[in-house]
Amino acid sequence: MLREYEPPTPEILRWVAHHVHRRARVRSVAPLPGGITADMDRVSVDSPGGLMDVVLRRWPGDDWAEGLVTREAAALAAVRGCGVPAPQLIAMDENGAETGVRCTLTTALAGQPDLTPADMQSWLGQLATVQAAIHAVPEHPHIRWDGWYDDSAPLDWLVDRGLRDAAREAASGPLVAEKVLVHGDYQHFNVLWCDGRFSGIVDWPNAATGNRGSDVGHCRLNLAVLFDTRTAGDYLVTYERAAGVRVDRRADLRALLCFDLGWQRFIPRQVGGRAPLDLAGMPDRVAAAIRDALDTID
Question: N or C: which end of the chain has fewer CB within 10 A?
Answer without folding.
Answer: C
